[in-house]
Amino acid sequence: MHVELLYHTPDPERAIATAARLCYAPVGAAELMETMPEERVRSVLSTIMSSGHFSTLEHASYTFAVDGVSRALTHQLVRHRIASFNQQSQRYVKFTDGLATVKPDSIAADPQREAVFDEAIDAAIAAYEKLLAAGVPAEDARYLLPNAAETKIVITMNVRELLHFLSLRCCNRAQWEIRDMAHRMLALAKPTAPFIFMDAGAPCIRGNCPEGKMTCGNPYPRVKRD
What we know:
This protein is of the alpha+beta class. It has helices at about 10-20, 30-35, 40-50, 70-75, 105-110, 110-135, 140, 160-170, 175-190, and strands at about 1-10, 60-70, 85, 150-160. Helices cover about 40% and strands about 15% of the residues.
C-alpha cells in the first residue's frame, strides 16, 4: 500500500478560523485571513473543536492518492458519501499481463490457506484472460475479477468528513486494510494542521469507546487540548 497526500487547502487552520470568525467580524474574510494573529487562530479553532460547530471545517479539504489496495477496501471506502473518488477502471484497463492482488496476513501466514487462496486467484485470472482473448469486452470479463484485485484511487474529503472517516476507520474494530490506510492518511494530514488533527482517530483517544460490548478494550489516554 502506498498513500500520498497530493494536495490540501493551503494553511487549512487559518482558512477554517477565518470562515468561523467572519460570522462575527466587521471586516471581510480576505482581511481576516491576512491579519488574524496566530493566537487568535488558535483560540477560534479551540472554540470550534470544543463546541462541535464543525460546519466551518468544510472549508478545507485534502486529496490523497492511494495505490496497492484491494477492491475489498474501496467497496468500504465509497460508503463515505461526503467525499469524492476516482478509481482505476476495470472497464477500460485490461489486465493482460497478470493482476496484482492483496493477500491478508491471516491467509499468507498459513501455507494451506495460502494455497487455497492462490489457486482460486490464479483460476479467476486465467479465466479472465481467456475471455479477453476470445473477444469478450473488458467490462464483461471483469465480472470474474476478485475483491483481492489491487486498485488505485484518488480521495478528496473536507476536514469535517475526514475527521469522521478517521474516527470510524482508525478504530481497532475497523477492517485491517482500511484501518492501515486511515492511519497513513492521518499521519500525512496531521503535520499540516496539528491543532485540528490533535485528537483525530478512534473515539477512545478522546474519551470513552462508543462500541459498548463490542469494544476492543484497549486503554487509550484521553487527549487534553491546551
